[in-house]
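Below is how a single chain appears once it has passed through the pipeline. First comes the sequence as given, then the structure the pipeline wrote out for it. We keep one example in the README because the format questions we get most often are answered faster by looking than by reading.
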Amino acid sequence: MLINIFKSKIHRVKVTQAELNYVGSITIDEELLEAAGIMENERVQVVNNNNGERLETYAIKGKRGSGIICLNGAAARKAEVGDIVIIISYAWMTPEEAKNHKPLVVFPDENNRVVK
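Resulting structure:
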């Protein structure tokens, strides 16, 4: 049996763009993706702290060091520029693997930069 476990998250980043006329997804600064162990095209959940919206989409790599967090396509209707969101990834694992799993949590600064 496999269970779906919280793998990692980027906690409280600011939406910098919302592009309705785009195919879909969320564009995330490459540095943030790497820090959270989220791969390009990986499924993510986006939780909007400002309006309570929750959505699932996939991650697209944005320019490294840019701080970009851009909701694309239909997801652009779920947030406004300036909203604070949490981006969460999950992984399937056995209960035995899950017992030893330690989620990765990234706490970016107010400019969506990785704090080292």
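The CA atoms of residues 1 and 110 lie 40 Å apart.

See the next section for the split statistics.
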